[in-house]
Amino acid sequence: MKNLVYLLLGTFFGIILIQSELASWYRIQEMFRFQSFHMYGIMGSAIMVAATGNYLFKRFKARSLFGIPIGLPPKRYHHGLIIGGTIFGIGWGLTGVCPGPVYALLGKGIFVLLIFLLSALTGTWVYSYFRERLPH
User: Alpha-carbon distance 41 to 97, whole Å?
Assistant: First the structure.
């Protein structure tokens, strides 16, 4: 039953991604060419909602239904994040899709993205294979 709830929530989220054009190749290209505010507006509002929620969670010491404190652990930044983010951004700009909406796009019937999905999964596997030998 729990998995059904996740499936329904994921399906609803996918519909939102498609209807708001967040998964649109054309909208993503407009964003990278600075031709439209659409994507920046949506991402900016999402960041503001997340930042406000995080602030309120910290301020009121929010807890989950199981009593576990809700919050973000401190992050340690290093040059690998810059390199990884740059590679991610280049891939996003070249393909016009990020991993988030790929399932929604496959559900929409754009099956050429199976190549993208398999490539992303392969890259994740390669990283996990070499992770212990990489500087962190």
Answer: 18
